[in-house]
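FAQ: What does the model actually see?

It sees only this:
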Amino acid sequence: MLLQDSVLSIVRVSSFLKTNKGCHSRFEERPPIQQKHITMIYSILSLLLALNAISTNGQTLFQSQALTQHNLYRQKQCAPPLAFNQTIADISQAWAKSMSQTNTLQHSTNKLNGHSLGENIGYMCSSTPSVINGSQPTAQWYNEIAQYNFSNPGYSSATGHFTAVVWVATKVFGIGISQSSTNKCYYYVANYYPAGNDISSVTNFIQNVKKPPC
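And it is asked to produce this:
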């Protein structure tokens, strides 16, 4: 779980705008910590980081948390649950690693069986070692619901993450995360299949982005 008392609040996310962005987040430093406590604190954080990588049914804890949070939101929005797909997760992980190596937030051209994948990407930076909970990026994406107009449905760059998360026709999902070796930023990628946000018709949004009650 992300340590809220030591983590920067700024989160950058991107939906369908294919722009390159580095990790330019500002850090909010804590008051100085007495030297004798530093070793103990970092030992605890290192242990938490290791625990975060433990697998759950073939998924990392981060992936399991993200899937659970996706499905909680999908249930709320009258959409069926997603299934975790390891192939898609591997694709997501490879792209997250690529972004972390270049410190660049950029959409991929990833495909599955020749079909484009839906994609949400983002990064989160902290001023100290931290454990990122998979529910956090999912919540950031879903919270765009506040800007979605159910009376005038359709695609918007301001709500594209939300609509991708709850798209009814999407069946499977994978997510990956990678830490930059040059800064304290984590880059994450979620891929969806079949892809949502089909802008060919407003009807697609009426049918796939549901408004409660179900």
